[in-house]
Amino acid sequence: MASWWQRLKGGLQRSSQALTQNVSAIFTKRKLDDEALEELEDALIQADLGVDMAQKVAARLKKDRFGKDVGDVEVKEALAGYIAETLAPVAEPLVPEAGAKPYVVLVAGVNGTGKTTTIGKLAAAWAGEGRRVGIAACDTFRAAAVEQLEIWADRAGARFFKAATGADAAGLAYDALASAKREGLDVLLIDTAGRLHNKSALMDELRKIDRVLAKQDQAAPHASLLVLDATTGQNAHRQVELFREAIDVTGLVVTKLDGSARGGVVVALADAFGLPVHAVGVGEGIEDLRPFEAEGFARALLDLEPA
Ligand SMILES: Nc1nc2c(ncn2[C@@H]2O[C@H](COP(=O)(O)OP(=O)(O)OP(=O)(O)O)[C@@H](O)[C@H]2O)c(=O)[nH]1
Ligand SMILES: [Mg+2]
User: Using an 8 Å Cβ cutoff, are 47 and 264 in contact?
Assistant: First the structure.
């Protein structure tokens, strides 16, 4: 099996390609002048790093090397360094607290971002560490959603809580937490719908789930994850803002970094929100969710070898 690094680098290839080609084209034996910096800023924006981050990076490079002769490798190394600095504070793996029984993780996101898959992967990883894991199928809107999640739960050996299609999602969340407490589970993962009749119904349902959990355990949910699809690029910003209006988002998971050309958005998100990025998805398989690692990600994005 390919190493994690190879997997990440392979996945980010489409993201890094355009960026590194542009950087190379700009900085082939050239003085670092204003024109070069402007071109660099454009290349960074095109690579989904966002306008703010692109400006900051260009300003840093200007401060460090203005007027000097620079080569493309040197510039890539410098960029990877700046980006890693931005990412380091948000690279924070999600570790269930042992004291919380269960540690409740609410998982939200718009439809198709990878919520259910991420829950399956997290459940498998935590069960593999010897934790007793429960999963609640609170996406009661679609019958297929429950079946899909049940397959993941079986694979992970997780306890599965479900209700009939169309049942009250918050009611199920409440019951699942009561059962999980009774059964002494260590973790309870709560899947939610990505699509309801409309956006405000979706947000109302999330708020309600959030509320009923806190009724039984003031600290619950202990973590509220927002799952974002890297292929949506800058759209992810709007999703963060939207979900934060409904729930206290405590961290992000960014999926589909394999094959996305827009992996740079992770940098923009880190810069804009400073929310922990707990994990990244690099494939559909059970092992394809990995803790987010700042330097590795930055270097892969610039198509550099590991430090
Ligand atoms: N390539 C790739 N595919 C992924 C990744 N994560 C999820 N997927 C795929 O994306 C699709 C949607 O994933 P789901 O987990 O069903 O997404 P969801 O957010 O639960 O979707 P809804 O329940 O419809 O809102 C599935 O085909 C997954 O296999 C990833 O990291 N990489
Ligand atoms: Mg789902």
Answer: yes
Q: How far apart are CA 176 and CA 178, in angstroms?
A: 5
Ligand 1 centroid – CA 75 distance (Å):
35
| pTM score above 0.85 | yes
Q: How far is the CA of 256 from the centre of ligand 1 (A)?
A: 8
Reported as a single tens digit per residue, the pLDDT across 65-86 is 898 889 999 999 999 999 999 9
What is the token pair recorded at 51?
């306008």
Question: How deeply is 99 buried, as exposed, middle or buried, from its count of CB atoms within 10 A (0-12, 13-18, 19+)?
Answer: exposed
Closest atom, ligand 1, to C-alpha of 117: 15
Instruction: Tell me the C-alpha to C-alpha distance, in Å, between residue 64 and each of 1, 57, 85, 109.
Output: 40, 11, 15, 40
Separation of alpha carbons 106 and 206, rounded Å: 9
User: For residue 255, which atom of ligand 1 is closest to its CA?
Assistant: 31
Distance of CA 77 from the midpoint of ligand 1 (Å): 33
Report residues whose beta carbon is within 6 angstroms of any ligand 1 atom.
109, 111-117, 139, 145, 194-195, 227, 255-256, 258, 281-284, 288
Structure tokens belonging to residue 113 = 């971002």
Q: 158 phi and psi, to 5 degrees?
A: -95, 150
